Backbone:
């Protein structure tokens, strides 16, 4: 492997410079005005992968944003790794809270700052550059395929169809994904569980126009008041979701599993301090690790209605809305949960208002087995680079398409992410540590080596 | 009075044309970018009042928006009427719901459409033009003073000081105000009660930055969820405000008063139909008329937090906020209620969040006696123009400064408004019927006549 290390060392400044070019493209999938940026970003990546050594790379259109597909086949009989990543990023608001422009990346304090620095441009770039290093040094031990999508942050809608259409093209032994985090640099971990997601939007409509809150206040149901009542009622005093049937399919951990799970290093005091909160809050009877790792949750992601500008306006708004998402755990099905939510929300709405409930997107929870060859290879590679065997970890996050890969392509995914909680993905001032980037670059070729050997 | 009628008839097209010029000035007091428009609007009015016949008119600076003062003294021994009105208007959002530009007034279906058409530019213009007609025909029977402010919609903060400073200048026998509505053209009414107002803003802060709702959801208190819980908890299942002490000073009507009050013509079916609502909602045990007229209320005027754009963002927002106002009735004191609100809201907030509570503005409830000479004169004038004796009516709205006039200047106000519910004040597509404008113009000179005679 020394050749690879030498190559990486000699070229890593250029790798970062190229990553900055990628980060400069504002590929926000949630906002339609960025549609041209999605295409531009896909073309950038296809060109970069050919440059890195791919036999071919294509920007393949879908009903939504294009998928970048690339491959290098060294031997039809060798193991095949399908690298999955996404080039779309989250919106940047509140923009005013960014210390520097989200799309003008900077290096500061040993970290790369910018939207997508970690999630997922920084992480997919480690794979592109590890691939380049292996190609350039003639040490690629597996066939490699890349599938980079532009809709992960909005539910990967088009990728399901893409997978259905291209089953043969995407044939592989493992899907390799770096879109998750480790516990810390001192406690490396590999994600073996992801929560599912059911993302809803609700709109409560009262009178057909905004009303004067003096003339009508007290007699007409205020949609904003009603919305707070309906949303507040979705969680009870024990922190449990009140939607009938919500917990029916939740797999409860055995006492032994719970003990093992809670053995992961975790300091509640440090957790509270890092978030500057006075206390945590969640489902009664579960630890913080359990609440995010193996229990479902319900969060308001956005809420709006009425006058939100400067000063005052004495109005009863005609409408009020909220975006509400639920994280799901095995064996909850997002389609069933979305339906239960919709039925419940409509059932609890009073006759004084109309409610509209939409499912915006969803995905299934996922469990990655720790006894498959890819996991073993990754465990060995991480141990070699980090000096410590990684812990299997249940993340609270969701990558809905991962369970889709299994059901459509029949291929398991290995979730080997190099992010850290401090990277602030989805938040202002997202960043990615240079050390994380470099350790990822060092770990990936070792994974290929051990995975090829595990045949 | 025929001279006045003839003058009005001959000039009313010009009156409307001039009103359009006034309506074109976007004098939104809540938005600081409109500061120059406030000055421009005040200057327009001062010039118009001199033109109409005032001995003098001045744009008098305050700490906020200027006050327009004008007067015509016919005889130091004659009765003096102080006309109060406001030239500031409400914000126009949601702007997309206006059928025509809010600041480009149009005449359509016998109505004037535009922001301020009723509230209060259209109504104060009736007074300016009735004054012009009386001056021009040499038939003004009282001394007249005008005091037009530019901060009514944001709490009249500067006018309190203005009144304290100019007690002598403002000396009058009655304050004449057209900033309210009638029950209908068939059922004219004079407002004899106004609710008070306590307008608050609350901000709930959880983690110090937006968080990924997958990684933290279920373990960290979400400020948007907490906000819905806290706000929903301010009203109980009976529609009563839960703030301790909130009802302590509320004057309960006697059974006889309640019977009399509920004799006003009111159709619940027509009310629901006009607002396109399936049902009304309010404090248990009270009628709709009582709920808006003599009972206090609590409304969310605006709520916001997290991602409110297109599509989805899986975020736990760092902050969520709401604007909440309470309408007050005799003998509630807005200062006491604001303090009770603040204390309660802080008390119910969990340790997992910080809350910040601000009082944005407030005003006292007001009762106008029906046995004072000005009321009797107005009753007679309205009966003559509308063909029916007006009902005394308790409005749910607030004009906080009215109780201020009484406490600072020691002068009662007569609330003779010519608005209608359908005018949609504070809403998109505000309008004012030409017939309302003309009946106001006809009523005002009669009021002056009968009020002068009542000496």
Residues:
């Amino acid at each position: 492997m020394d050749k690879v290390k030498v190559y990486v060392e000699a070229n890593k400044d250029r790798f970062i410079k190229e990553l900055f070019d990628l980060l400069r493209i504002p590929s926000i999938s949630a906002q339609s005005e960025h549609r041209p940026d999605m295409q531009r970003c896909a073309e950038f990546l296809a060109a970069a992968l050919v440059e890195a050594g791919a036999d071919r790379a294509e920007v393949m259109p879908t009903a939504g944003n294009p998928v970048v597909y690339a491959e290098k086949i060294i031997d039809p009989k060798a193991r095949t790794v399908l690298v999955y990543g996404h080039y779309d990023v989250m919106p940047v608001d509140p923009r005013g809270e960014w210390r520097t422009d989200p799309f003008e990346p900077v290096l500061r304090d040993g970290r790369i700052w910018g939207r997508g620095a970690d999630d997922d441009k920084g992480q997919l770039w480690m794979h592109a550059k590890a691939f380049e290093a292996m190609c350039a040094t003639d040490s690629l031990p597996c066939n490699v395929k890349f599938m980079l999508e532009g809709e992960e942050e909005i539910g990967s809608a088009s990728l399901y169809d893409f997978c259905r259409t291209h089953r043969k093209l995407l044939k592989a032994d493992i899907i390799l994904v770096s879109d998750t985090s480790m516990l810390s640099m001192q406690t490396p971990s590999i994600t073996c569980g992801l929560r599912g997601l059911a993302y809803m939007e609700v709109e409560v409509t009262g009178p057909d126009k905004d009303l004067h809150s003096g003339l009508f206040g007290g007699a007409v149901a205020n949609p904003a008041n009603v919305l707070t009542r309906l949303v507040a009622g979705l969680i009870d005093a024990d922190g449990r979701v009140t939607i009938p049937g919500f917990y029916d399919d939740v797999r409860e951990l055995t006492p032994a599993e719970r003990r093992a799970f809670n053995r992961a290093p975790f300091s509640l005091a440090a957790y509270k301090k890092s978030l500057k909160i006075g206390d945590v809050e969640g489902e009664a009877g579960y630890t913080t690790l359990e609440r995010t790792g193996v229990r479902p949750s319900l969060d308001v992601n956005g809420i709006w209605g009425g006058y939100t500008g400067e000063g005052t306006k004495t109005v009863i708004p005609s409408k009020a809305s909220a975006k509400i998402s639920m994280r799901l755990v095995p064996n909850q099905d997002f389609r069933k949960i979305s339906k239960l939510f919709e039925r419940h929300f409509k059932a609890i709405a009073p006759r004084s208002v109309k409610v509209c409930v939409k499912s915006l997107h969803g995905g299934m929870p996922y469990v990655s087995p720790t006894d498959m060859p890819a996991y073993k290879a990754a465990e060995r590679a991480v141990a070699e680079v980090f000096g410590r065997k990684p812990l299997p970890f249940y993340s609270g996050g969701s990558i809905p398409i991962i369970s889709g890969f299994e059901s459509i392509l029949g291929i398991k995914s290995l979730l080997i992410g190099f992010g850290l909680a401090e990277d602030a993905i989805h938040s202002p001032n997202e960043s990615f540590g240079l050390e994380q980037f470099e350790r990822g670059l060092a770990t990936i070729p070792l994974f290929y080596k051990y995975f090829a050997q595990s045949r």
Remarks:
- Chain A touches chain B through 102 residues (CB under 8 Å).
- The radius of gyration of chain A is 23 Å.
- The first helix of chain A runs from residue 2 to 23.
